[in-house]
Write a structure and sequence with these properties.
The complex is a heterodimer of chains A (480) and B (450).
Chain A: H1 2-14, E1 19-35, E2 38-56, E3 59-65, H2 70-88, E4 104-108, H3 120-134, E5 140-158, E6 163-180, E7 185-190, E8 197-199, H4 203-208, H5 215-226, E9 229-230, E10 234-240, H6 242-254, H7 259-262, E11 292-295, E12 316-321, E13 324-325, E14 346-347, E15 356-357, E16 362-364, H8 371-376, E17 380-392, E18 398-410, E19 413-419, E20 421-426, H9 427-432, E21 434-437, E22 444-453, E23 458-466, E24 469-478
Parallel strand pairs in A: 4-6, 9-19, 10-17
Antiparallel strand pairs in A: 1-2, 1-5, 2-3, 5-6, 6-7, 6-8, 10-24, 11-12, 11-16, 12-13, 14-15, 17-18, 18-19, 18-20, 20-24, 21-24, 22-23
Chain B: H1 4-16, E1 22-38, E2 41-59, E3 62-68, H2 73-89, H3 113-116, H4 120-136, E4 140-156, E5 161-176, E6 181-188, H5 196-209, E7 220-225, H6 227-241, H7 244-248, E8 269-271, E9 293-297, E10 300-301, H8 308-314, E11 336-339, H9 346-351, E12 355-370, E13 375-388, E14 391-395, E15 399-404, H10 405-408, E16 412-422, E17 431-447
Helix pairs in contact in B: 1-2, 4-5
Classes of the chains: A alpha+beta (480), B alpha+beta (450).
Chain lengths: 480, 450
């Protein structure tokens, strides 16, 4: 395959292209899902192909083909070249790429137990046991448990001489249950909603989740929610758990710090950003204790890799430092606009898509608080746990997020449970009201397997290292 | 395009070696191109030739599913082997009643040569015309223009042989000024039905009308929701409400409302995969012919869509709405949603409003707040206007809504006779066909800065 990619790039060099790269990607996926004791999904998928990206006359063209024959890859290269010529018909300015060292390397995910070598019976058996134990109460209408595994081998070759191979393994699992009493319908999940938690690790990650240990608690909380009071409509102090903080960071910091979005190229679908370039190094994004950074080097993070899909080495770079907006997620095309080199965040969700700026592991630096102390320090408030609803405007300012479950905080203690809780606000005001963040003991990198962006739509697997945090005077309510 | 004969002869070769009791192969192949533009320049121009082949095998009631994107016979045989291995490890699925028997499906024309042959340079020329329409009035243009062809085939060892060639095209256009934006969208199986220049003019006019937007307090307003806004709301209602699994789990707002009056008399909406006024496809991904299914008729809850597995579980027949075999756990989904038109023009509806809001489209709707009550939340974008005394007064800053759609669509004051095709999450095999709808009451719960 390496020779084929090299030959095609030589052919493109002969056509005097400004730049070209070829990506071969082979992904194996295994999905298992058990619902109410029935294995309703047990599937394996293999997906292979090559994508060729060509910069010619200062304009881009791309073609992907589900084939590994040199003749087909060359056809795709020619189509990419013709398409770049078509793009040049309607260009304003020629595209210039930031300088980049041409790496030759092989990166591999750290993996103790290849999930594809774990017997299917073991995986199905665990999910069946979870589903059956969740379903031990008549009020439980649905109990579902799932696992997803990905094994990706990819090659990145460029006309600048890059030759990078990467082998990445991703694993995830989780479960959810729905309780109903005929009037109410309520849901609880573990360890997170939206198919659980994910990492660039092997099956050892699934084993460390101790999935069975939380089945009873999850079921009982779902049932408890049926008779819970609605979350009151009020303005109060709130503490948000780590998994919901991951969603908060994702929507209100990760997306708006994507420089392509800031420059307007995502406006037609996902929208723009309030984190404009004139605010770089002076926008007061959050309070002084808020530090957020992108780090594709976190061991096991779902957004970790060796090199991005432009051949830029994985790295750590700040986005918010002591509350001030100081950085973006960038690419070779966008970084020169702010006088920088790419910080390596371009990823495609397969051979058939061009790389876009995507979140890596966008992490909130831990603070100094123990969670118990933080709750004890809160006189009146609400404790929000685990995402259910996400909605934010197209500049990432006005948001409304709902969670599965909340608890009243009264005189420093957790009290009654609330159903249908949501909180709403404007991003900078909200982050400026953050006055406490829990310490590293409570910090966890949450894998998010379903981040959508782009046309055609691409799904990225990203992550957020977060710990619980407190925000003052936030508008909260019930979702009715 | 591979073609029906070659696909089925390849599948015959592959299943000959199958040791399963029953085998099904579902093929979805496409060659598509998409030109994406922003700041009145093309920034992305992509082509893709890909295929998905799903092989479902059954040993008794044990089902295995494996898939590949290769049509090479050796790869298909390896995929078949994977599928069989999985089936061997499976537990019995008591709801599996065997693969479908062959059934007649409607013959419809869904393939247009001109659309299949549309090239990147054709898209670039058209996009350039869009830029010219914006530049003349000092608006920058952004959006995406796609075209392509594809084919869907379903083959099984009981004799099902379904095949449908497809083409499709869609364009979305945003015109932008410093303080406003406007939106227009078009889609069709035949690219000649789309007029990007006229759509560009609509987007520019909306951006012009919404210059210098003024803030408006959230509250309960009369609204006119244009087809894109309606389609975005119904996309979520489809996801949380018209799906068989949501219905069985009582999460669907229809679950406890069959036969009950839940919306205004004028509200009728249904799924119809055979109606070529939409993006039709006459069979589902297990080869069952599509039936027309009413969700709500004259304001009364009627039903949801079913595939064979979820139908068996609930004791009803499939309505021809199965997804691909790897997604059968999610239940059946409608892909071709139609909302029945009314007898008004949009102009007449605006003229009848004393004080209200005109919404072009919504952004980032979410329907997981309280699905049994059909509560949605989302933001307005790209053209939101105050109407006063029957006229559009001025643009307003975007608003957040949070409301029950059962409640809001119980206040219908008018529906347009004209409908538009709006692309959906699954736009190769379906879309939303939506009118403009005038509601007497709609709850806005928040505001933003632009």
């Amino acid at each position: 395959m390496k020779n084929k990619l090299g030959n095609v790039l030589d052919w493109l060099k002969g056509k005097s292209v400004d730049y070209a790269d070829c990506r071969y990607v082979r992904t194996e996926k295994e999905s298992i899902q058990v619902t109410d004791g029935v294995v309703d999904t047990l599937s394996k998928d293999v997906n292979v192909g090559v994508g060729v990206r060509v910069l010619h006359d200062g304009a881009w063209g791309f073609a992907g083909i589900a084939s590994t024959s040199e003749a087909d890859i060359k056809k795709a290269a020619n189509k990419a070249l013709q398409t770049a010529r078509a793009s040049a018909m309607a260009k304003k300015e020629a595209i210039n790429l930031a300088e980049q060292e041409a790496f030759k390397d092989h990166y591999k995910t750290l993996c103790e137990k290849d999930p594809f070598n774990v017997p299917i019976n073991d995986k199905v058996g665990l999910l069946l046991e979870i589903s059956e134990r969740l379903k031990t109460d008549d009020k439980i209408k649905m109990a579902q448990a799932s696992m997803d595994f990905y094994k990706t081998n990819k090659l990145f070759f460029s006309t600048e001489g890059a030759e990078i191979e990467q082998d990445i393994i991703e694993s995830g699992a989780g479960y959810e249950t729905i309780a109903t009493d005929g009037n109410e319908v309520q849901k609880r999940s573990f360890p997170n909603s939206h198919r659980g938690d994910f990492a660039t690790r092997g099956y050892e990650f699934i084993e460390e989740m101790n999935l069975l240990d939380n089945v009873d608690k999850t079921r009982e909380e779902a049932i408890q929610l049926l008779s819970a009071d609605d979350c009151p409509d009020t303005e109060t102090d709130i503490i948000i758990t780590g998994s919901q903080m991951a969603l908060q960071v994702h929507e209100s910091c990760g997306h708006p710090s994507e420089l392509d979005r800031v420059l307007g190229t995502e406006i037609s679908l996902a929208g723009g950003s309030f984190m404009q370039i004139d605010g770089l190094n002076n926008l007061k994004y959050g309070s002084d204790i808020v530090n957020i950074y992108a780090d594709a080097t976190v061991p096991g993070g779902l957004g970790s890799f060796g090199y991005d899909d432009e051949g830029v080495k994985a790295q750590r770079s700040p986005i918010v430092k002591e509350g001030v907006h100081v950085g973006y997620l960038t690419s070779r095309e966008t970084a020169p606009v702010i006088g920088q080199r790419s910080n390596g965040t371009m990823r495609a969700d397969g051979w058939n898509r061009i790389p876009l700026i995507r979140m890596t592991n966008i992490n909130l630096e831990p603070g100094e608080w123990e969670l118990d102390d933080l709750i004890a320090d809160t006189k009146d408030g609400i404790f929000f746990d685990m995402n259910k609803v996400w909605s934010i405007d197209d500049r990432r300012l006005n948001f409304q997020f709902g969670v599965e479950c909340a608890w009243e905080i009264k005189n420093g203690k957790l009290g009654r449970i609330f159903k249908n809780p949501l909180y709403t606000g404007m991003t900078p005001q909200f982050w400026n009201s953050c006055d406490a963040i829990c310490n590293r003991n409570h910090w966890h990198v949450w894998g998010v397997p379903n981040c959508g962006k782009g046309e055609p739509m691409q799904t990225a697997r990203v992550a957020h290292g977060t710990s619980p945090a407190r925000f003052r005077k936030v508008k909260v309510g019930a979702s009715k | 395009m591979i073609g029906k004969d070659k696909l089925f002869s390849t599948f015959e070769k592959v299943v000959k070696s199958s040791k399963a009791d029953e085998t099904e192969i579902t093929y979805i192949g496409s060659t598509t191109g998409l030109t994406r533009y922003a700041n009145s320049t093309i920034h992305q121009n992509v082509n893709e030739t890909d295929a998905r082949v799903f092989i479902r095998t059954a040993i008794g009631k044990k089902i295995g599913v494996a898939s590949t994107n290769s049509l090479a016979v050796n790869d298909l045989r390896a995929t078949l082997k994977n599928s069989l291995e999985i089936a061997k490890f499976q537990r019995d699925n008591k709801y599996f009643d065997g693969l479908p028997e062959p059934a007649e499906y409607k013959k419809i024309d869904t393939y247009f040569e001109n659309t299949a042959n549309y090239k990147p340079k054709d898209r670039a020329r058209m996009v350039k015309k869009v830029f010219v329409r914006g530049n003349r009035r000092k608006y920058t243009m952004a959006g995406a223009f796609s075209s392509g062809e594809g084919e869907v085939a379903v083959f099984n060892t009981r004799g099902v042989r379904c095949y449908q060639p497809l083409t499709g095209s869609s364009i979305n256009i945003i015109a932008m000024s410093k303080d406003s934006s406007g939106y227009a969208v078009g889609m069709s199986r035949n690219i000649d039905d789309i007029d990007p220049v006229s759509l560009a003019d609509i987007a520019v006019e909306k951006a012009r009308l919404s210059r210098r937007p003024k803030p408006l307090k959230p509250g309960d307003y009369e609204v006119i929701l244009e087809p894109s806004a309606i389609a975005e709301a119904f996309e979520w209602l489809n996801y949380v409400g018209f799906n068989s699994r949501a219905f069985m789990e009582k999460r669907s707002f229809l679950a406890e409302n069959i036969g009950k009056k839940i919306m205004s008399d004028s509200m009728t909406f249904y799924d119809d995969g055979n109606d070529t006024k939409g993006i039709a496809i006459p069979f589902d991904f297990e080869g069952v012919p599509k039936k027309k299914v009413y969700f709500v008729e004259k304001g009364v809850g009627k039903g949801v869509v079913w595939d064979r597995l979820s139908g068996k579980k609930h004791g009803v027949e499939s309505t021809g709405h199965a997804l691909t075999a790897n997604q059968h756990g999610e239940g059946a989904y409608g892909l071709n949603i139609f909302i029945e038109p009314g007898d008004k023009t949009t102009g007449e509806m605006i003229a009848s409003v004393e004080r209200g809001i005109l919404v072009t489209r919504f952004h980032y709707i979410n329907g997981l707040i309280d699905p049994p009550k059909a509560v949605l939340t989302g933001m307005t974008r790209d053209g939101t206007f105050l109407i006063e005394n029957g006229q559009i007064k001025h643009g307003i800053k975007n608003l957040r809504f949070t409301d029950s759609m059962m409640r809001a669509f119980s206040t219908v004051k008018g529906i347009s006779k004209e409908r538009k095709l709006i692309p959906s999450w699954w736009d190769a095999v379906g879309c939303m066909v939506a009118p403009t709808i005038h509601l007497g009451s709609f709850k806005f719960t928040g505001t933003t800065d632009f």
